[in-house]
Design a protein that fits this description.
With about 210 residues, the protein is of the alpha+beta class. About 35% of the residues lie in helices and about 25% in strands. Strands 1, 2, 3, 4, 5, 6, 7 and 8 form an eight-stranded antiparallel beta sheet that branches. A hairpin with a 3-residue loop joins β6 and β7.
Length: about 210
């Protein structure tokens, strides 16, 4: 008579637990693939304040005490926009491939930007070199840069952050600094303006130039 070998009960339990875990993981992965990875939740006010802090650090590293703030620069200020925060997942494929992909309601990307004037090109390049050296010393990481006539910029990520800080030159002695955060869903109770965009605090960086 052929003797049948049985697995020990503890081994069967491990096998069942492993199979169940793999099944659950597969279901979850398929669900995320279909519905899309959910956007994290973040307070736009706190995000704006954090970005302002990063641009203040960048201004300190540039070390341009004689520069003036250019209040007439296009794009200056803090803003929360949702048009770049698109739907995720296969269920929204039609929206994703649209010529004008819609933004997800309640999801915005916060950015802040300001510009300096009275910064000659040679001074701007020296300032960007100083900023690169000082910020990397502080643990920031350079992710992109360019040094060509009329196209000079520096892109960095602060230490331990997914935010992005950009510094770039413009003609006629101007230099811009901006910081950007990834798209995030704002929590219930967030104060909105008449365009249903989150209300952000007054831009405060660089404080030395704003009085």
């Amino acid at each position: 008579m052929t003797q049948r070998h049985h697995r020990p009960s503890w081994l069967r339990n491990i096998w069942k637990a492993t199979a169940t875990g793999l099944l659950v993981t597969g279901v979850v992965d398929c669900g995320r693939l279909w519905s899309g990875e959910p956007y994290p939740v973040a307070d736009p006010v706190a995000t704006s304040n954090r970005l302002d802090g990063y641009t203040q650090t960048a201004y300190d590293a540039l070390d341009l005490p004689n520069a003036e703030l250019d209040n007439d620069s296009p794009g200056a200020g803090a803003e929360a926009r949702g048009d770049g925060c698109h739907y995720r997942g296969l269920r929204h494929l039609g929206k994703q491939i649209s010529d004008s992909p819609p933004g997800v309601p309640g999801v915005v990307s916060v950015h802040t930007e300001w510009a300096l004037k009275g910064v000659p090109e040679a001074e701007a390049l020296a300032a960007m070199r100083r900023a690169r050296e000082e910020l990397t010393r502080q643990g920031w990481r350079v992710t992109d840069s360019m040094n060509k006539p009329y196209w000079r910029y520096l892109v960095l990520k602060p230490s331990g952050s997914d935010d992005e800080v950009r510094i770039w030159t413009y003609p006629r002695g101007r230099l811009k600094v901006a910081a950007y955060a990834d798209c995030a869903r704002y929590p219930p109770g967030t104060r909105l303006d008449n365009l249903d965009a989150p209300v952000l605090p007054r831009q405060v960086a660089p404080t030395q130039l704003r009085g």
